[in-house]
Structures are given as structure tokens and as C-alpha cells.
Specification:
Layout: H1 13-16, E1 25-31, E2 40-45, E3 48-54, E4 60-66, E5 70-77, E6 82-88, E7 93-96, H2 101-116, E8 125-129, E9 134-139, H3 151-155, H4 168-180, H5 186-199
Helix pairs in contact: 4-5
Length: 200
Amino acid sequence: MVNAPRKLTDIPKEILEVLYSQENVYYCIKKSPFAEIKPKFIVITDRRVIFLDLKVLGRYDLHDIPYSKLEHVVFEEGLVKSEFDLKDEDGHHTQISWLDKKECEDAIITIRDALNAIAVEPVSIQKKKQLVGGRWVLHKPKEVVSRSMPMAMVTDVQRSSTPQAEDPMDKLKRLKNLHDEGILSDEEYQEKKQRLMDMI
């Protein structure tokens, strides 16, 4: 289930200014620990995860990880704090600590659902219960079409409030289009086509 976003008035203008036309915001986390003067934000959309670190005197750092570049997401729940870690395909990590456990869980589930909207095969979360806390890992497989999907095609992905299993025939049509446009090689196309044929 895609989580209802915070009200757009809760999303800082620095993020609203960089949203693409028709980009949908699914979830927003605001982190305001007592030790920091300005908050940090994680915003999850249908295209990417955006990070904003507000600083004093109007300064800020903002960067994003498009789903085509996302490699994995790890949520570590500890005795005292929770940590959220995202890694992109270039090996860069974005880590935010002292987050609310429920918000971290909602965030990783929202990212999973957003990826599944553009995936040929389902993306899942691995959960491990530890003596103190736990660990959730979402690893994006190579089968996620968004790795080479043009932004225009990502824009056309429609999300519903309840995830539904996509018809294999629809996936076959989408695969054929990607192959015809040269995004998938003959070998990739035949391999993915056979997997979908086995599901019919």
C-alpha cells in the first residue's frame, strides 16, 4: 500500500521547487533531533528518494537517488535509535539516524511499492529479527525495468492506493515495447519473456 503523503504544506519549499511536473509525493519524513538546529527530510516520490538537510542562514544540501540508480535500502532498528541507509549504484551511502521506527518501516515499504510499479519481477523486503531490534533490507534486483527506463516512461506509471498484481500479458506488452525501442537486448528480452510466459 502506498502511504498517504504528509500535507504538501509540510514539505519544504526547497523540495517542492525541484519536483518534476506530475511527480507524485508518496511519503515525507521530517527529522528534528534535539541536537540539531534545522531539520532533515526524506521525501519519497514515484520517481526517486529526495534528501534535504536544512542548515542555518538559508543554506541547505539537497540530493536525490532515482529508482534507476538505487541499489539497496537498509533499515536498522536498535535499542535506542533507528537508522535508515540508502546506497546507490555508484556506492554512495545516504544515512540518517535517530528516526522513528514506524516512519522507517513506512518509508521502506513505500519505496518497495514504488519500485514494484515499474518492476518486471516483484521487489521484496528481507526481515531479520535480532536480540535487540531488527534489520530490514530491500535490494533492487537487476530485473527492475527502471534501470534503463526513460524518464518519460516513468512519468506514465500510474499508482493506485492498493497494489494489484499486474497481468502478465500487460508485462509482455511492456517488455516488447522496451525491446522494440532498443532498451532491452534480444537476450534480455527472450529471458524475461520466457519468465512471464511461465506465469501464464
